[in-house]
């Protein structure tokens, strides 16, 4: 059933911080089924296209212009389905080729808030199918007396204060290749690159090859138009190699410039997402970096310090360090596989009705 455009009545919406991102969460039953109608509605809700997103919920940055759509799953052994949509800030574009590991942290709590899953006593476990990728995540978070507990002592770099921890284990969809080309490194536009997907398709490059030291702020890197143009050219080349096709209108693959660590971690990162530079790093981006660190002959392996733990890789980013727990294995055929476990936090910010602007 197509949902009418709710200019006057509004539609139910929950604004949540998930990890180091912020987004609008909706039940699938509250938005149009038709993708074109849905995308038009979401652009008007978020205030795009407009660099300030002044007339909508968006925060004028890709990290705060995100949407999660959640529904009860029909898959065996899965509780809910999660569709992630990246809403472009200054263009009328809604991208669905990627997922978001940060907003994923809020999907389980949102499912409880909307009575899709019953809260457990002490903790709640929610199995989540990521519709963008087919991967399956298991989220575990505190709950009591039928409610999600958001307050807690877990701190993640890039978010002020502390909150309750959300443990997320991610397993790849059957048949999915960790190294899409089968090689730990490929030639890409005159550069050596590692193309890898441990939950998020990323291209790993040696920052020094692009004239980047690795300690620059996101603003400093964004100010370099020559760098942005070269990174985007490489991204467009990488898309078909990763099986993603023409990625000009998509936000994957992410482009990550790697450098030796500076703050006691395993490796330094600066992530283009793809036009802006991430103020920290996404959880699944970090998982892909961490997996590459553990595979010989990748760009990451050559730049990284030895991880201090068998499964944990401390990934440095502009806002601090993200400990990425990734288990990497190799099968009898020589193919690499990875499973990740991350600790994030989430917080309910607002719950009510949102009113879209009448037209783009």
From TrEMBL:
Q: What is its EC number?
A: 5.3.2.8
Q: InterPro entries, alphabetically? A: OMA_tautomer-like, PrpF-like
One Pfam family for this entry, by name? Answer: PrpF
**Major enzyme class:** isomerase
From the UniProt record, which GO molecular function terms apply?
isomerase activity
User: Which controlled-vocabulary keywords does the entry list?
Assistant: Isomerase
Q: Which family does it belong to?
A: Belongs to the PrpF family.
The name this protein carries in UniProt is 4-oxalomesaconate tautomerase
What organism is the protein native to? Answer: Microbacterium ulmi
